[in-house]
Amino acid sequence: MPVYNLKINGQPLSVEADEDTPLLWVLRDHLDMVGTKFGCGIGQCGACTVHIDGSATRSCLLQVSNVGDMEITTIEGLSEDASHPVQQAWKEVDVPQCGYCQAGQMMSAAAFLSQNSNPNKTEIRDAMSGNICRCASYNRIEKAVELAASKMS
Amino acid sequence: MKNIVSPSFSRRSFIKTSALAGGGMLIGFNLFQACKPEAEPPVDISQLNFNDFNAFIKIADNGMVTIFSPNPEIGQGVKTSMPMLIAEELDVTWENVHVVQGALDTKNFTRQVAGGSQSIRHGWEPLRQTGATARQMLINAAATKWGVEASSCKTENGVIINANGDKLGYGEVVKEAAALKVPENVTLKEVKDFKIIGRDAGNVDIDKITTGKPLFGLDYKEESMSIASVLRPPAFGRKLESFDDTDAKGVKGVQEVIKFGDKIAVLATNTWAAMKGKKALKANWVEETKGESTEEHDKILTGLLNGTEFNTMRADGDVKKAFAEADQVIERVYESPFLPHNCMEPMNFFADVTDDNVRLVGPIQTPAGTARRVADLLKRDPEQVTVEMTRMGGGFGRRLYGDFALEAAEISSLAKKPVKVVYSREDDMSAGIYRPAIKYKIAASVKDGEMTGYHLKEASINSNMYGLIPHFFPAGAIENYQVDVAKYDSNITTGAWRAPYTNFLSFAEQSFFDEVAEILEIDRIKLRLDLLQKVKGTKDENIQYSPERLEAVIKMAVDKSGWGNAKEGVFQGFSAYYCHNTHVAEVADVVLKNDIPIVKKVTCIVDCGIVVNPLGAKNQIEGGVIDGVGHAMYGDFSFKNGEPESKNFDKYQLIRINETPVVETHFIENDIAPTGLGEPTLPPAGAAVANAIKAAKGIRLYKQPFIKHMKTKAPLG
C-alpha cells in the first residue's frame, strides 16, 4: 500500500492507505482522529467537514491520494485549547443536543468566518446550509456563528 | 408554597452507602428501580451488593462530587438534567460536580430506556431523595462529631454549618457518614429554595464535543477489532439465494466474508475496505414474500378507512345517532408517508463474543432489552452479557431497536473476534424500522352550529395508536366521541419514531379543528377553548391532559404571538396539543416569497411543570419544533417493490438552517412536578404551519410532506 505524507493540524504524519481511501477514513481509522464524523459519504450532510488549505471541504469525498501537500485542519486542531472563537461561542450558546454533527458545523463556521468576519443573518444561513443537524439545533448554530463573529472582530 | 413531594416508597430500597478505600464515600442507588413509574416493594438491601447499583454519587475527601449517570443520552440532555436533581438536594455547587456516564447493569432492571420523554418525570422524586439522603447522612456525621443535634445543622454549597457557626466540608465527614445507617425519612427542599433546578446548565459533554474527543459509538475502538459492513436484502420480502465473494475477498484490507441468515458481513481492518468489500459482493436474491409499494399501501389504507373492520379504542355516547341527527357532517382525510429516522450517527455497534462472555458497546436506547435478545440469540446465560453505553448521535426511536447490536453479536460469535458493525447512510436508510404510513379520517357532526359528534378512524401499517392516545384531547370534550383503528400487516419493518402516532395525529386533528372553525364561522381559538371548558371537572381517569393547563398554553400563545395582530404579509397558524404529559401551544408565522410559503417564526408555549434546566429545555423545544416543521414540510419516503426509493440525503430532504424558523419559547411557570420535553413540541408544529399556509394561500393541506402536495415550487429559506 502506498504511503502518504500528510500535514495535519501543523504536524507531518505518514500513513499507509489504499489510494482511493477518503481522507475521512484515513483520519478516523488510520490516525485515530475521530472528531471528524461520518454522516452520509456523499458530501450532502457536512458532518465530515475539515479545512484544506483553510477552505471547508468534505473529507468523505477527498481521496487521500489527492491531498498532496495541502494543509489539513480538523476539529482536533482548530485550536490547541478549545480557544477558537467558534469553539468558545458553541460552548457559550450551548449549541449541541446529541452533538454528533457539531464538529462539521464548527469547521464550516470557522472557514466561513475567516472569509467573512462580519456576516449578516442571511449570509450565515446560506453559508451553514451545507451542514445538516438532525436534532435541529439550527437557531443556536446561527446565534453561535454571530457570537463567534463578534469575538473575532 | 405547596409541598410537591409525596414519598411513595422507601429510600432504603434503592440506596446503599460505602466507604471508599482511597478515602471518601460512595452512595449507590438503583436508578432504574428508583425511577419506575410505580413504587416497587422494598428490596432487602442487605441482600444486595454494590454490583446491583447502577448509579453512584462519589464524594471524595476533598469534597469533590462525582455523579455517575447511567441514562442513555441521545441528545435530550438527561446526562445534564438528571444529575442536577441529585446535586440540588445534596446541596453542592453545580460547578463542582463532575458527571460521568456510568456503566449499566443490564441484568436486573427495566427502566433503562431513553424514550417516551419519561426520564425526568420518573426521576424527579427518587433522584432528589437520593441527593437528600446523602446530605442528611453528612449532616448526621457532622452533628455527631460536634456533639449537637442534627436538626440544628444546615448545609450550604457542600459545607455543613451548626448553630454556633462552626463549619465542616462534606469531604471532612464522608468517612464517618459512609458508616452510618441510611436514614428513613429525609426532607426535600421547597421549590423556592432551589438553587440548581431552574437555572441554566450547559451540556456536561460540551468540551469533548467542541474539541472532537471520542464520545460516540462510531468512535469506539479496540485493538484487533474488525469493522463489519453488512449486505442486507435490498428490498423487504427478499431472501438470499446465493452469492459470490471472490471480488470482495480481493479488496485490500478485507479479512473474511461471513454469511449469517440472509445477510453477508464483510470484515476488514478498516471501514473503507469493509464498505468496498461489501460493494464488491455479488448476491442473488429471491422474492420470499411480495415486495410492497407505496402506491398499493395508499389503496389498502384507503380501503381500510372506508371499510367496517375496526378496533374501537374509545367510545363515548352514540356517534351513530349524533351523525344521523346532524344538520351537517364534516369529514376529512389526512395522509402521511413512512419516515426513516436518519440519526446523524449511522447505526453501529461493537461486540466481542467469547466462550466466557458477551461484551457489547455502543449507542442504544434500550440496553437491557437488547442484552436479553442477544442472550437469547446466542443461547447464553443473560448473566454473561454486558452492555456499555456510548453517547448517541441521535435516536428518535431508531435506537430503541437493537437489531444492529444483534448483528454485531452474531458476526462476532461466528468470527470469534471483536467486531464493530458500521452502517453506511444507505444501509441506515434502507434497513430501517420506519414511522409507518398512516391515514386518518375525521368526521364531525354539527347540530345547531355545535359539534355534537366526533369520529376518528386510523388506518396504519403494522400497528396502531396505543396507551392513552385515544383519550387525548378532544376526548371528553364532545359528548359522542369514538376512536377506531385498523391496520395492515406489511413485511416492511415499522416502529417508534419521535412522538409515535401523535407526530401525525396532532397534524390531522389540529388541522381539522381549524377547518371546522372556518366552516362554522367560529373563532378558531374560541372553538378550542369552548371544547376544553366541557372537559373541566371530568372524572375520567383515562383523561390525563388538563383542560386548565391546555387552556393556559393556548391563552399565552395568543398573547405572546401577537395572534390576530400580525404584521401585513405575515400569516399565522395555530395549534395546541397534549402528549407525553406536557401541554404545548404553537403559532407559526408564514410569509410568502414569490407566492412560496416560508415559515419565519414559531412561537411555542410549553407547560412541562418545573423547568429543571431552562437552557437544555429550550434546546429540546427548538429542536422539536423545527423537526416537526421539517418533516411536515419535506419528509417523504416511499417504497417500490419492497425497496426504498431514497437511500441517502441526495434524494431525501431534511430541513436545513436556511429553511429554519426562529423558535420563540415561553414557559408556563408553576410548581408542578416536571415532565419531559424530548417529544411533545414536535406534534403540534405541522398543523401550525399548515393552518398558516391556509391563511396565506387559501390552500388547505391534508397530506404530508407539504412541498409535494402544495402544487407549488419547493419553499426556499
What is shown here, in short?
The complex is a heterodimer of chains A (153) and B (717). Chain A is an alpha+beta fold. Chain A has helices at 23-30, 85-93, 102-115, 121-127, 138-152, and strands at residues 3-8, 11-16, 49-52, 55-58, 71-73.
What does this structure look like?
The complex is a heterodimer of chains A (about 150) and B (about 725). Chain A is an alpha+beta fold and about 150 residues long. Chain A has two domains: about 5-80, Beta-grasp domain (Ubiquitin-like (UB roll)); about 85-150, [2Fe-2S]-binding domain (DNA polymerase, domain 1, Orthogonal Bundle), CATH 1.10.150. Chain A has helices spanning about 25-30, 85-95, 100-115, 120-125, 140-150, and strands spanning about 5-10, 10-15, 50, 55-60, 70-75. In chain A, helix 2 (about 85-95) crosses helix 5 (about 140-150). Chain A is globular. The relative contact order of chain A is 0.16. The model of chain A has no long low-confidence stretch (mean pLDDT about 95). Chain B is α+β, with helices and mostly antiparallel strands and about 725 residues long. Chain B folds into three domains: about 1-210, Aldehyde Oxidoreductase, domain 4, CATH 3.30.365; about 215-290 and about 345-420, Aldehyde oxidase/xanthine dehydrogenase, molybdopterin binding domain (Aldehyde Oxidoreductase, domain 4); about 440-710, Aldehyde Oxidoreductase, domain 4 (2-Layer Sandwich), CATH 3.30.365.10. Helix content of chain B is about 30%, strand content about 25%. In chain B, the strands form seven sheets. Chain B has a seven-stranded mixed β-sheet with strand order 11-12-9-19-16-17-18, sandwiched between helices. Chain B is globular, with a radius of gyration of 27 Å. The model of chain B is unreliable at about 1-15, about 35-50, about 105-115 and about 715 (pLDDT under 50). At the A-B interface, helix 1, helix 2, helix 3 and helix 5 of A face helix 5, helix 7 and helix 16 of B.
